[in-house]
Amino acid sequence: MKTSIFKLIISDIFKQTSTRAEGIEAREKILQLLKTHDRLELDFANTQITVSFIDECLGVLAENMGKEKFNQKINLTNISPTLKSLLTHIMTRRLGSQ
Amino acid sequence: MQKTSVQDITSWIENINNGLTGGTCYAPKFLKPYHFVTLALELKRYQEKDIQIPDALANYAAAMGLWDAIELPSPIGMSKNKRASTFFPIEPLKSLNTVQNSAEKIMGILKSHCADKNTAESMSCMLLELLENCFAHAAIDQDLHGLVCAQPWANGKLAQIALVDSGIGIRNSLGENPELRSRLDGENCCELATEYGITGKPQKGHTGYGLTLARDLIEQNGGNLIIISKSELFQSCEKKPHKQYCELPWHGTLILLELNTDRALDSADVFNKWPLPKGYTNEDFDF
Question: Is residue B249 within 8 Å of residue B231, measured between CB atoms?
Answer without folding.
Answer: yes
